Amino acid sequence: MPGDKDLIKVGIAGLGRSGWNIHAQLLQSLPDMYKIVSVCDPDESRREEAFNKFSCDTYTNFEDFLKNKEVELVIVATPNHLHSTHSIKALEAGKAVVCEKPMATNLDDADNMIRVAKETGSLLTVFQNRRYSPDFLKVRQVIQSGKLGRIVMIKMAYHSFSRRWDWQTLKEFGGGTLNNTGPHPIDQALQLFGEKEPEIFCDLKKTLTLGDAEDHVKIIMRAQDAPMIDLEITSACAYPQKKWLVMGTQGGLKGTMNTLQWKYFNPEDLPRRKVERRPTPDRSYNQEKIPWKEEFWDIHQDKSPGQLGFYLDLYKTMRKGASLSITPESARRVMWVIEKCHQLANRRKP
Hints:
By secondary structure, the chain is α/β, with parallel strands linked by helices. The chain folds into two domains: 4-127, NAD(P)-binding Rossmann-like Domain (Rossmann fold, 3-Layer(aba) Sandwich), CATH 3.40.50.720; 131-306, Dihydrodipicolinate Reductase, domain 2, CATH 3.30.360.10. The chain has ten helices and 14 strands. The chain has helices at residues 17-28, 44-54, 62-66, 83-92, 107-120, 134-145, 177-180, 183-193, 308-320, 328-348; strands spanning 8-13, 34-40, 57-59, 73-76, 96-99, 124-126, 151-159, 199-205, 216-222, 228-234, 244-248, 251-255, 259-264, 293-298. Helix 5 runs antiparallel to helix 10 (328-348) and helix 8 crosses helix 10 (328-348). It starts with 7 loop residues before the first strand and ends with a helix. The relative contact order is 0.14.
């Protein structure tokens, strides 16, 4: 069992939904690897809650928080518009940094974060935790198996019908569905899309939100010899579709975060045919029986660690010298797509 010297001492900046409900809970479940020794938040009740649970140091000021020499890893879970500023300050203080998504609110700030990480030699990664989602890992595995043939299109649907009125609906805080929810499916989409730079179509609309930022996002990604990605993230869908729909030349896949099914066939099992110039018998359409094979997946049978995988891999990087699983450069691709979408939306404004 690792000793105290092997523990990564963590400071969490921001004790909201992400900092408290996700990061603190994940780290608490890995007591042999991580220890929360410091937190920073302007809310007194949140600081007291953290102190009572972790017996940690507490701060209201981010600069004072960074002076804690015990902290090796800083988790930046502050509001979106502060991500780049806080990450850069932490890197310059010699801390390793896990930055919540979005990495930044514009591409220039993301590039500055990467530059400072290289200049200081400090580790920087972004919490693109949905790369570890069991459903995504299974979808990627099925696609990479080749069973579905050449992938023609991947449709991803994040559908709901609901109003929202918190700070994440306001542009001044870097809010909006594209920045808040968007980094998760965009990152997954880019992993499936491949290394090519996609051509982007994007439509942003304000529908049910009480804030001034968008809550309806439609993104199309395409490139030659790459699957088309059709991504919808909306709060204005009263009839939600399933999250996944994959179309391939030998089969397809559909499903949700909890269940997936896919069917496929072996092209060798089809009879050999050639194009006929003569009319079809009885004026009929071409028909043949496809010898389908079908498989299923259920999350309750899955053995992957889920979001814990992020911190398991990070520990291997920081203590065992393993390569960084989620590089800031890969997260920058997400920021590039988001920036393209904002640019396209601004061009359409009257």
